[in-house]
Write a structure and sequence with these properties.
By secondary structure, the chain is α/β, with parallel strands linked by helices. It is built from 6 helices and 5 strands, in the order E-H-E-H-E-H-E-H-E-H-H. The protein binds D-ribose (RB5).
Amino acid sequence: MKIAIGSDHGGFELKQELIEHYKGSDIELVDEGTYSLERCDYPDYARKVVDKVLKGEADKGILICGTGIGMTLIANRFKGIRAALLYSEFAAQAAKEHNNANIIVFGGRTMSKEDVIRYISIFNSVKYLDGTYEIRNKKLDV
Ligand code: RB5
């Protein structure tokens, strides 16, 4: 599975930890930056990951900023993107089963690496339940 990953400076350290963690696994993380702790604007990196997902060049995306809030806001402005902030195990499960999220978001300053890795595993291990949820998800495009 190919996942495009991007962050601002607030999510940089967590991004690097995830890249290290998934090295050599069946999850290929494609690093879209940022590449240092220098202050930068999170929408610039959200756009890069959104672009990869919308073009089908990545199966899904991961975005990280300080809280995960800014990245969620910007990613959901693009038609076809369903970005979800995974803040608990249940949210990780529901983000796939109910919302069919194609970008998952984390807070580098609010979440531990261990929790984030657990949420990614849960998200990746469940399936979209379509049916009723598909009817609702279609109503997202306004
Ligand atoms: C950057 O300082 C911070 O505002 C950003 O990472 C993010 O938390 C915005 O939502």
